[in-house]
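Per-residue structure
===
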Amino acid sequence: MKEKYDYIVVGTGIGGGTLISELTKFSNDILVVEAGNLKHNSPNYISKGRDFGLRSTSSIQLGGTSNLWHGVLSFLDDIDFKQRDWIKGSKWPITLDDLMPYYKKISKSFGIKDFEYFFENKLPEDLNNELKSIPFNRNILNNKLFQQPLNILNYKHKLLKLYQSKKITLLQNSKVCKLNIDNGKAISVVIGTDNKLYDVSANNIIICSGALESPRILQNSNVNNPIIGKYLMDHPMGNLCQVKFKKPRKAQIYSAKKYNPHIAIKTGLTFSLDIQKKHKIPNHCFYLRPSFSQGINNKSEKIKLSLLAFKDGKISLKDIFYVLSNINIAFQILTYKLSYNATYKFADLFFVSEQTPTEDSFVRLSKDKKDEYGYPLAEINWNISKSDVESVEKCYEILKKEGFSNEDFEFTHKFEDIDWSNNFTSAAHHVGTCRMAENENDGVVDKNLKVFGIDNLYICDGSIFRTGGNVNNGFTIAAFATRLAEHLKTKK
């Protein structure tokens, strides 16, 4: 390890991994600092707010949480970047058009062959016909397309190759405790490793540690911006209700359809812009998940989610036995995993909702808990506003009255039977604690991800999101990382 580098990148998840890969195209003077090693470790923080409700929502290891996800890709919607009068502070300083070239560029790294298949009007006829095979009011609802490469990009392996080819210097089991900042510049990074502290300098420092950890680093560094840590968001998710088809259906694209041996495609449903404006609701998305029996069991849903969503090796034999003894859950998992074109009579409406920014949801420094180097840990206070819960109830009423025709569907139970407000969980999509803005009175980073007031400090992870949209944030983070690398190259 040298005393000074051209770039120091802190964190190796999707943001850090993408950025590092792009930086090596024009620089080999890069120090990469990773708090974990090659195995999954849970983050060390204090939780004071609502529990995330999942076994794992992030991972401290080389490659970060990219080791856990299943790589389902889609981008934010145009409305997500715009001013929404019903959502305070919703306007981003960039647009979807600004980011779209970078989505397209980075999609190749993820293994996407047909980028145009993210757009309904570009789908081949057979896929388009399958979208139309489920009847609903298309003035109320829109199809939103997702692609899932089956060979998921693993940043751990990619970064190890860069390290072995000597394109980067890699420090594992090394924790960034704080930054030394002087006269509007980040002078050095204080790194704790092997029970010792080291100061290392760089011309540019980029923090990619995620929405729970990046604000802790800035707060421990006494960066003078009261917005740091505020507006922690996620995607509250869970089954809202269940519908019964009057006529059993086959529509594989609504669960997951392999349109070639390497990529699956599926659709969710979002509410039209007119409906969002009229009812003042966020940009929620939901999925019609095939079900083979009437009713929703919330205990079963959480076990199923653990089996479907994560790869951290913590599935118990008890969970596996429970699934094997529950025919409906087993069929649902097989339908999803094997892309089986089943005929089904019921569909669970699984919501991945947009949480709106609220100051009551935040990350701050713990007053009494410290890490092994004597620095305060992050204290997490995840809170969902009453209006966000009410917006989901509004969606149920809209769907029942206008979205689904009584000629084709019937709802199997009432909204209150599900108890959404108590049963939803995090989607492990933490965003928003170092938000992008036009100025430092409204955010932490500018449109180029530079921290306000510090010339050589950048943040590139989910914390920079101003609003959350309704999709996994990984694709958007990777697009921002690609855009940032281009900016840094120009600056160089």
Q: What stands out?
A: Residues 386-403 form the longest helix (18 residues). The mean pLDDT is 91. DSSP finds 13 helices and 17 strands in the chain.
